[in-house]
Amino acid sequence: MRIAIVGPGAIGSLFYIRLSLAGHQPWLIARDERQARALSQTPLTLLEGESSLQVKAKILCPPLESYPFDLVLIATKAQDTKRAAETALPALGPSTLVLTLQNGLGPQKILLDAFGEGRVLAGTTAQGATLLAPGVVRHGGDGETYLGPAAKGGPSGEEIARILSLAGLKASATPEIFTYIWRKLAINCAINPLTAILGVQNGELAKNNAAKKIIAKVAGEVAAVALKEGVDLGEEGQLAEKIILVAEATAQNRSSMLQDVAAGRLTETDFINGAVAALGKKHSIPCPLNETLHEMIKALEAIKRS
Ligand code: KPL
């Protein structure tokens, strides 16, 4: 299968290396020539426990010519989705599928608008990966990947799930993909902004009663909005418990938002708390916690980037 991966971050690099080792010859699409040059200096490296796997990457950068890829996997930050779509467009053949494994709610719609309902797969992954340096990924643990049609009547994703699973990236296709995306969104709505604002690793939240109270309120808002969108995330208390379990299971992680804020980068807040707050407004569901966390992260971004 001819595969292109747009976004050489932690998830993009992990998937690239695994697919390469499974015998595919994917292309990695860099943002620009500078990034492509930096990535081609050394092999991509996957660190797992004490072992280190290396793969020489095949790298392209925009403007792409017409490569007839079978699958384009979008693994950029959510706020870079438009740019990723523009990059990928010339590389689409008549039957190319596009799969997003990005965080948050919003990238799916951007890709549907760009490519149409017939070819976009929405997905979410619980693979634990941290980018230590360009092209160097630490694999923190295997988590499942779910994917399915981003719009009614879209591709099922069965074949892609099979290919990922054969490459050691456990994946399942499901028509209920948005339930999985909302579950991950609830986790990100609570853990990401709190860790970024408090400047702590995920595990600290699970030990802190005040943080746990905030998590419960955020979970309640997300569950109420999700229900209006047709997704049942279950009862608020149970959802909050699940989020706290994830904080414990990823105790040593610095959340992606904490890493972005610390590095002075823009965060994915518009696609996480911002997306829930906006849908809350649409459905007249008050979301004061999500709104405030969204604004606080915006304020932090501005301070760190000034
Ligand atoms: O997805 C994550 C993130 O950091 O973006 C969690 C699950 C919170 C793990 O850190």
Quick structural summary:
This protein is an alpha/beta fold and 306 residues long. The protein has helices spanning 10-21, 33-40, 81-88, 107-115, 158-166, 177-198, 202-206, 209-228, 236-249, 256-262, 273-282, 288-305; strands at residues 3-6, 27-29, 44-48, 51-55, 58-60, 69-74, 92-100, 120-125, 128-133, 136-141, 145-149, 171-173.
Describe the structure.
The chain is an alpha/beta fold. The chain folds into two domains: 2-175, Rossmann fold, CATH 3.40.50; 179-305, Orthogonal Bundle (N-(1-d-carboxylethyl)-l-norvaline Dehydrogenase, domain 2). It is built from twelve helices and twelve strands. The strands form two sheets. The chain has an eight-stranded mixed sheet, sandwiched between helices. Strand 1 (3-6), helix 1 (10-21) and strand 2 (27-29) form a beta-alpha-beta unit. The longest helix is centred in the middle third of the chain and has 22 residues, at 177-198. The radius of gyration is 19 Å and the shape is globular. The model has no long low-confidence stretch (mean pLDDT 96). Residues 103, 187-188, 191-192, 202, 246, 250, 253, 255-256 line the site of ketopantoate.
